[in-house]
Amino acid sequence: MKKEISVIGVPMDLGQMRRGVDMGPSAIRYAGVIERIEEIGYDVKDMGDICIEREKEVDENTKLRNLTQVATVCNELASKVDHIIEEGRFPLVLGGDHSIAIGTLAGVAKHYKNLGVIWYDAHGDLNTEETSPSGNIHGMSLAASLGYGHSSLVDLYGAYPKVKKENVVIIGARALDEGEKTSFAMKVLKCSRCMKLIVWG
Known about the structure:
Layout: E1 3-10, H1 24-30, H2 33-39, E2 42-49, H3 67-86, E3 90-95, H4 100-109, E4 117-120, H5 141-146, H6 151-154, E5 168-171, H7 178-183, E6 186-189, E7 197-200
Parallel strand pairs: 1-2, 1-3, 4-5
Antiparallel strand pairs: 5-7, 6-7
Family: Belongs to the arginase family.
Organism: Bacillus thuringiensis
Keywords: Arginine metabolism, Hydrolase, Manganese, Metal-binding
């Protein structure tokens, strides 16, 4: 029996201020990712892209950029990921800025209560509305998934931490904001032939 993968594109750049990352899903498809996955024996179903509202905003109460739009897209993404797993398929999500991780992990967490996450990133994405110097939600995605931050992000698709902090490893972090360092007790392990490895505990 073939292993089955469903692909979802999330061409979102609303979690930060730079244009370009919204072209990620089309660029990855154009590079032939679906054909390459099929070549190694997987059945791939491309579910297209989630439609993204382009009007940008800053919430005057929180100073978070595009909070409503990001939460709406992530909620839709969580639902799609949830249903893909329910069908016995593996969700492959193409982004898009890092805020899409909020929706991805929310959907996966409906099925895996002890979910482990390997976070490859130069940044921790552990800010909240209180610690973020920019208000960009892409820098809050891991914090929200751990249960820290604005309720629109934390409670998205179910009011519970999607991931336990002891089940997260961050690989490649080189730039943590001061608020991230003080809010989370982390161990930093330096490897001689790799970048920094951060674990909790």
